[in-house]
Amino acid sequence: MIRIIRIVAIAGLALVAFAWAVAWVRPDLYASLRGTAASGAVSVGGPFSLTDHTGRAVSEQTYRGKWMLVYFGYTFCPDICPTELQTVANALDQLGPMADQVVPLFITIDPARDTAAALADYVKLFDTRLIGLTGSEAQIAAVAREYRVYYAKATSKDSDSYLMDHSSFLYLMGPDGTFRALFRQGLSPEELAKALRARIAGA
Asked: What is the dihedral of CA 57, 124, 148, 77, to 10 degrees?
C-alpha cells in the first residue's frame, strides 16, 4: 500500500513538474493548461484545516485575497528546507512593498515533531512574515494530497532523529485560491522575486 501511495504521489508530482516546465518555456500553452486544471482534469491545491505557529486554527480561506507562496518541509531538514526558506525571505525583501500581497506558508510534513511551538521557533530564524502550519497526521496527509506532495519517513533505528524524504517545490496560489505557478528547487532570490513580480503585476 505504501508503495502504491508513493507511486501515485510521484506521478502527480511529475505532472505538476511538467506543468511548471511548460509555464517556463511556453506561457501561452500553460494558460490553456490552467484552464484544464480549473475544469478538474489537473488540480493543485485546495481546502485545508491546519494550525499556525501561534496556535490559531486556519484554513485556505484565512489567506484569501493574498497570494499564497507555499512550501512543504520540516524543521529537522538539514539543508534543502533552510535553503529554500531563506530564498523566499530574500525574494520577499526584493519585492519591496509588493511583498505585502504575498503570504509565505511553510507546511510541515513532520507533524509528530513540528508542533506549533517548534514552528514558532523555526520560522523566526528566516523571516517574521513566514507562517508555519502544522496539524494532525491526517490533516497533513490531506493537504499534501491536495498539492500533490510526496513525503515519507526515512528508515532510521533512532525514531527521534529520523529524516523525511519529500518533494521540494514552491507553489504559488492566486488571491482567488487557484494554482498559478510552480517554482523548482534551486531558484535564486532574484529569479524568484522576478517571477513573483511578473505574476502579481499580471494578475
From this structure: -130
> For residue 163, what is the DSSP state?
-
Distance CA 43, CA 179 (A): 8
Give the model confidence (pLDDT) of 24-80 as tens digits. 433 333 443 343 333 344 589 999 999 999 999 999 999 999 999 999 999 999 999
Domain 44-201: which CATH class? alpha beta
Beta bridge partners of 133: 52, 107
Domain boundaries, the chain: 44-201
> Are 150 and 10 contacting, i.e. CB atoms less than 8 angstroms apart?
yes
Grid cell digits, residue 94: 526584493
- Measuring CA to CA, which residue among 90, 41, 71 is closest to residue 184? 71
Q: Amino acid letter at 29?
A: L
Q: What is the dihedral sign for C-alpha 176, 196, 152, 75?
A: negative
